[in-house]
Amino acid sequence: MKKGKKLYEGKAKIIYACAEKNLVIQHFKDDATAFNNQKKSVIEGKGILNNRISEHILTCLSQAGIKNHLVKRINMREQLIKYVSIIPIEFIVRNIATGSLTKRLGIEEGTVLDNPLIEYCLKDDKLGDPLISKEHILTFKWATKKEIEKIDKQLNRINDFLVGMFRGVGIKLVDFKVEFGRLKNSNEVILADEISPDTCRLWDMNTDKKLDKDRFRNNLGNLVEAYQDVARRLGILHEQSNIRPIKFPRPKAVKLKKNK
Length: 260
What we know:
With 260 residues, this protein is α+β, with helices and mostly antiparallel strands. The chain has six helices and 15 strands. The strands form four sheets. Strands 1-2-3-7-6 form a five-stranded antiparallel beta sheet. Helix 1 packs parallel to helix 6.
């Protein structure tokens, strides 16, 4: 698939035009950023892992009936995706309190929430991606009431699916961030974002070891190794790549508690 002109470059991905007008090519970079781009680095191999992990998760979501922008993975760093107009909102789903939630509200780190908490942030790095309400969204016409209702339902379905997927491989899904977009032809709203350790907080179920971008945010090191661990547990780290191979011990068996 031949790439055309660059349409957009974000902190972790580049979008290129292609011959098919309703599709674009998404390239995963090795750039790592945190704190609204105030902290930056290049970590070799990160883009390859995010491409592969996101493809796996989006494919599984599609099979579960959750529409998203993925068409197919083209190569180690690129995907063919549907061309959408992104809604300028970051949708965050929290299962366990950490990060900005604990700082804003004084909630104890690691508090398990009774129900998933959905938060909305305006997608604007210059403003620091401020937290907004549904009333803001409707007042400024960033999305319609019908669209937000649909997205909220999708977020809960996605969360339920991901919690089960990661629990099955010994990982807690702490929280995640996604975006949605409108298809060019129909204006149908679909999930239009990667889902990877860059956009999720993932903790080992036994040790609470962080397996996500918090390793970069908090100077914990070994980010690629943690992403590899996630890919290995998901059963997808079996391709040849230019990432230095690392041996990992098998994860301990996890006994799941039955819901009463």
